[in-house]
Amino acid sequence: MNQTFDYKTTGLVSGLMLGSHKSRQRGTGADFYKKSLFLDEPDTSRLDLNASLTDPFESLHVKSYRQRSKIDVLLLIDGSSSMLYDEKSALLHEVYESTKASVEAANDRFSCYLLKEKLIKLDDIDALTTEFTRLSPESNHAEATQQVFPVLPGKPALIFLVSDFHWPETQLQSLMTVLSAHLVVPIVLWQSKEYLDFPLWRFVELTDLETGVSSLVFITRDQKQKIQQQYEDRRAYLTQQFRRFNQQPFWLIDHYDAKQMSRYFSMQ
Description:
Blueprint: E1 21-27, E2 31-37, H1 49-53, E3 61-69, E4 72-78, H2 88-105, E5 109-115, E6 119-121, H3 125-133, E7 158-163, H4 169-178, E8 183-190, E9 202-207, E10 214-219, H5 221-244, E11 250-253, H6 258-266
Parallel strand pairs: 4-5, 4-7, 7-8, 8-11
Antiparallel strand pairs: 1-3, 2-3, 5-6, 9-10
Helix pairs in contact: 2-3
C-alpha cells in the first residue's frame, strides 16, 4: 500500500538547489513564471525575441522562471514515556516510514530526531525501535526539547513534530518559539482508549502516562464524562496554542492514513 503523501511548500522554499518545489527565487529555473522587461532583469540568455519584436514601444523582454529547490524536512518525535501507551509506537513507525518515503519521493532532505533526555538522531526505523525499547516510564520527559535549536537548518524548513503533547505549558511554549521560523506540522498522536473505553461502575487502574504512577479509580458516569471532557478541553487548548504560532495541528487518533496527510496540506 502506497503511504506517501504530497506536501505543499510553495511559500517556504528559497534555496537554489534542484528539487521538486517551486521557489521564490526567479532565474533560469524549470517553471515558466512571467515575462519581464529586460531593464528589470538584464539577462541576455533569457531574451524573448517574439515579445521584443512585437512590442510597439520597441522594449526588450526576457522570460522569468521559478527555480526548483530542495528543502529540509525534519521529523521530531516525542520520546517521553506516554508514547509507549497502547499502539502509539506502532503508529509512530508508520509516520516515520511514510514521511521518509514521501520526502525521498520529492527529492528533498530528510532527517529525524528523538526527543528523550537528550536529542538522538535516528538514521533508520531500526534505530527508532531500539530507542523505544529503552524508554522508562519513571524517568523520561522529553527534556531534549531544549536542545533542538542547534540541529535546525539555517533557512526555513518543514518540520513534523509528533507527540501526544502531554507536556507542561512552559515546555510546549518554549519549543514552539524555537521552531517559529519554520513551517511546523504538529501531529497530535492520541489513542481513543485513553479517554473513551472505560467500563462503568467498576474500579479501573489509571496510569499517569508521564510518571507511570497508577491509582484505582471507581468509574461512574460522571467520572467517565469528566475524563472525556478533560481531553476535549486539552484538544481545544492545543489547537489554540498552535494557532498562536500560525500552525494547524494534524490529529492522528488510532489510525494513520497518508491520504489524510495529503488532504491536510491541500487545505493549508
